Amino acid sequence: MRSILIFLLIPAWLLGQKASVQLNSPDVLQVAVYDSPPFGLQYPDSTYGGLMVELWEDIAGDLGFSYAYTLTDMNTLLSGLQQGQFDIGLGAISITPRREALVDFTQAVNPSGTGIATAARSRRNAFANYWKPILINLLELIGTLLLVLLVSGTIVWLAERRYNREHPSERNIQGLADGLWWSAVTMTTVGYGDKVPNSQIGKILGIVWIFTSIILLSLFTANASAILTTTRLSSHIQSDDQLRQVRVGAARKSSGEEYLIREHINYTPFTSIEEAIDALLNEEIDAVVSNVPVLKYLNNSRDYYQRLAISPRLLLKNNMGIALPDDSSVREPIDQLLLEKIAEPKWQKAVYRYLGED
User: Fold this and answer.
1) d(Cα 205, Cα 199) in Å, to the nearest integer?
2) How remote is the C-alpha of 148 from its chain's centroid?
3) What confidence tens digit (pLDDT) does each residue in 5-27 have?
4) CATH number, domain 248-316
5) 190, 213 in Cβ contact below 8 A?
6) Is the domain covering 127-233 a CATH 2.40.50.140 domain?
């Protein structure tokens, strides 16, 4: 009889705990949703969805919470939690040291990370994607060098014309072709000696050209190497050292921007991750740094389907969580349920449905 009474009292005690949670929580929780598909988004019919939104609704339903959504950006979400405007923050909110100093977080929900995306290179279009930019840049460089040779050859030929009339010789620079030939062999340090300037002014110009050509040849070699290296890196960027050598973009207030600032890597800020990816595909930048699950989701979306190459190597491992104000009265009950929910098959199915991975 006593055991039956205890058995009946346990559910009543649990209901009492749930009721006490409701009494200590606000009547309607203000929930800020960071617009970051697939973790938090607003559909055209003004309803809300996403992986973190579904998890929250499951938890809130069990706890009996009432809530109202507001779609916002990361900066507004964090400041709103600090100022008491919001009670809950949902979306692709990675738990970073900077954010932890501003707000509180629940237990980590799922492993995440900051990574790099570049434009996908199709094997079928290997020439257009890889070799064509190299050839164009090298041809521009060679064209500039030939123009300089032409100017140098013309100047030395004009300086030698009077001397040639007075002292005819086969070794004299007798025309523009001879001037161009002399400039080229002098620049490359071949120096055949079959054509040389003989006048005083010609010899002075020759000395100037010898030292100038050494500098020009060094610049040509350095620029050619830079063209080859930059084009190769833009297809195989996997580390912060490589990021420092290319043009990088990141969405404002994102985990990618935080990482770039922390590592002192120059970057171009964009209003959204979609704007950054558009700039990448338009060749305005060479890489985008962002949350890897978000990049994978966008790479499988209709707008960007398989147009991104996402590095398998993470720049930084981190986790996502539900953001809360400091000393939130609802953190403990949310934490308890959250740990149960993410261990259930329902959560794994939701992850697979949104991210395509277990």
Assistant:
1) 10
2) 39
3) 444 444 444 444 443 334 344 58
4) 3.40.190.10
5) no
6) no
